[in-house]
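Hi Q.,

Before the meeting this afternoon, I wanted you to have the adenosine-5'-triphosphate prediction in hand. No need to reply - just skim if you have a minute. The sequence and ligand are here:
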Amino acid sequence: MTHPAPAIAVSNVSKSFGGIAAVAGVSFTVADGEVVALVGENGAGKSTIKNIIGGTLRPDSGHVRFAGAPAIEGAGRTRHTGVATVHQETSLFPDLSVAENILIDRLRAPGSATVRPGHLRRAAAPVLQRVGAGFGPETIVRDLPAGQRQLVEIAKALAAEPRAIVFDEPTASLNLVERELIMRIVEQLRADGVAVLYISHYLEEVARLSQRVVVMRDGQVVADRPTGELDRGALETLMVGRELARGYPVAPPPRSAKTLSVRELGDDVRVSGVSFDIAEGEIFGLAGLMGSGRTEVARAIFGLAGAVGRVEVGGRPLRRGNVRACVAAGMAFVTEDRRHEGLFLDRPIRESLSLVDLDSVCRAGWLDGRGERRLTDDLADKVRLVARGGLGADGGSLSGGNQQKVVLGKWLVRRPRLIILDEPTRGIDVGAKAEIYRLLVELARAGSSILLISSEMEEVLGLSHRVGVMHDGRLAGVLDRSQATQENVIRLATGGAS
Ligand SMILES: Nc1ncnc2c1ncn2[C@@H]1O[C@H](COP(=O)(O)OP(=O)(O)OP(=O)(O)O)[C@@H](O)[C@H]1O
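Predicted structure with the ligand bound:
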């Protein structure tokens, strides 16, 4: 019996950057109608492989074949026919319509004539239907919530009718309902015979969707096994090379003094009438569906978005809209958009790490090189930073997850009085997550107050003393740890009574 060639065959692929191997001798296949999960720690080499399969990066040696055929070499870029990629960061044009975004590659094709809007709409409708979109082709992308933009991203990939499709963490920061939708699309693609390579840090998704798991560590494949043979613990151990502690670390009960007091907070647009307190040493989770106003609450506390209402830190009214005053009051804000707001891509990693704590690395106004080295080495260690080129390499050379660890880590050691974290573990691997949870609990134990915003319900429920649930711009209820179950949170988040 002859076997058909696999839809994707990666053979002995190696790639180095500046003499440092990102991936070395990687081989695996994905067959038609198969979902293969690609997992590994931050910096293991997953994105490098994705980019080589997608044709945006050329391997130093080895090759990728699609259904037995090599890629078509063109000037500068390799064209890989039959494979599409759904990226983590959205690549959509916000001011164009859904249909224009979906068909943009064809609109830009040389020799393409002017396209009539009616034609565009008709061409986009079937793929929108295939992803179960509840919006029309003429909707402007900017008006869609993030979860639905991800559907447009997938529809765009499907428009080319690919035989193989690569998903890069498609559910990061989506809520449970939106995640379910994406997973059903993947299941349907598989049933339709499409080959799927699924990159994810969410091991429950890996267990549900994939038939096979390829585990990468330090640029190499360390396991390629049927998913059914690996339980969660075994998979984690393969990924991080050690056994991870189960469950969440427990913070001691909060103290009685209030750190933060928020009254009738609003942003004049989406959020209004939000009131709550956070005590010293308390972890307060903020849950809610995407678009419910969680991020806006955080921004309004910091005075960033035309905020109204009263905010007190340590019993003193906060001078609003003045970020410097907030920082002076001991507040720290780690936003969702960490890569643009906290990391120098073209400066040594060491500088990004030491910047918030300059006082401790400066002696009489001079930068103390040894002090800086000690501080940054310690920090890098604490967040399990994988910087294969050392801390002297530029921030831009780090993998996505490791860039996030830098920005998060530098705030965590500063022991702020109040730290607001928006999606702190997005894109971060299981091992580093465990470290970050430990650091958060340590901060709380030392008396810091923490406002934790996360779409990962398990994380919010596992770490928080209390959980506030947002619905439609209002705080629908606050649940104590004993009442904070997934069902109760979902009920409040979807507009049900507490
Ligand atoms: N342009 C580059 N210049 C220098 N080094 C790079 C570059 N791109 C990747 N690397 C290095 O290659 C290694 C693999 O990175 P890659 O982005 O493939 O990891 P990853 O598994 O996708 O990680 P993450 O889960 O954080 O996204 C890392 O050590 C990274 O620092």
